[in-house]
Amino acid sequence: MRLGVLTGGGDCPGLNAVIRAVVRREVKDFGGEVFGFYDGWRGVVENRGEWLSVLRLRGTLPRGGTILGTSRDNPYMHDDGPAQAKAAIADRGLDALIVIGGDGTLSCADRISDDGIAKVIGVPKTIDNDIAGTERTFGFDTAVSIATEAIDRLHTTAESHDRIMVVEVMGRHVGHIAAWAGLAGGATMTLIPEEPFDIAEVCDALTSRHRSGKFASIVVVAEGATPAPGTIDMPEPQFDQYGHQKLGGIAHVVAGEIGVRTGYETRVTILGHTQRGGTPTAFDRVLCSRFGVAAVDLAHDKKFGHMVALRAGEIEAVDLQDAIGKPKYVSPTLWNTAQVFFP
Ligand code: F6P
User: Fold this and answer.
1) Strand 33-37 relative to strand 49-52: parallel, antiparallel, unpaired?
2) Cα–Cα–Cα angle for 212, 157, 219, rounded to 5 degrees
3) Does the C-beta of 276 come closer than 6 Å to ligand 1?
4) Which residue spans within 129-230 are E strands per DSSP?
5) What does the alpha-carbon distance between residue 85 and residue 115 come to, in Å, rounded to a whole number?
6) The ligand 1 atom nearest the CA atom of 9
7) pLDDT tens string 172-206
């Protein structure tokens, strides 16, 4: 087959590992060809990219980022975008597109498929782990490892100074990274988007912990965590050119309130894009390799309009329609377990 591949949306550890697996499977095992479009959907509209060889992907398994580049652009943002994308796919003689991305990129893939522009196979990417239909997106394990290591390091400095450290992790609509890193790092409290927080309750919990003689605390807050209505006045939201709310900074609000309400000394650490950079963990490298191989196999089985997914340890195909447009939230059972460790 002649396959196209693209990486869209925010970057994520493991993108190169998926591209490498796609190329290995198609070129080496099926004798086909793979064309990599640059900069996500933008490269499809502009017909920019390169034919990928096994040699080109050598050494990329542990490398963060994406050798193809990425963007949040999509063909439907431009008047002639869909027609240009269709022309590019015909020009390259592609049988199908393997689309590696999060909800925005995969929703676009679904529309591209519906409009008959290309046959598509999806691969679920995002450190947030918020895509339905799969137990894991790749990149999540790496982000949790980075956040956990940071929390471990913050524990010792927090204890030396009897401070409260507020650590902000990514997690736009869901708190998977916060919940997992909070549990793994032994955080005192974790705040996630799914559960609007009451700052008075957070401060009461910290105060009761201090009264029992434990002074240092780590509070993990997901960037998308929100105060319960009527508790804290939040600044006006800001949006980027794609309509994405610019997040980042809730930790300053939380730490400020804790400082004023309890009198304890607080410090803020915002992990930000460090969670998305650098080498993927062994788990993510294996997941990406499995996803990439399975995506090519789905194309050969003509299971277009599907996404590869991890379910009960196996790689399966799920209908793209069942994966997009509905974030996968932190499960109540995991959240109940996390709460066992709160004061
Ligand atoms: O969607 C993944 C993610 O890492 C979110 O957690 C975060 O809010 C967003 O991307 C930030 O994207 P950027 O700053 O690259 O636009």
Assistant:
1) antiparallel
2) 60
3) yes
4) 164-169, 189-191, 217-222
5) 11
6) 1
7) 999 999 999 999 999 999 999 999 999 999 999 99
Quick count: other Cβ atoms within 10 Å of Cβ 108? 26
What phi and psi, each to the nearest 5 degrees, are found at residue 187?
-65, 150
Please work out whether the CB of residue 10 comes within 6 Å of at least one atom of ligand 1. Answer: yes
Supply the pTM of this predicted model. 0.96
Q: Identify which of 71, 172, 239 to mutate to test ligand 1's pocket (most ligand atoms within 8 A of the CB).
A: 172
Residues in the chain: 343
Quote the Cα angle for 232-191-271, to 5°. Answer: 100
pLDDT digits (tens, 9 = 90+) for 244-289: 888 889 999 999 999 999 999 999 999 999 999 999 999 999 999 9
Query: How many domains in the chain?
Result: 2
CATH number of the domain that 212 lies in?
3.40.50.460
State which residues form the domain around 303: 2-139+280-323
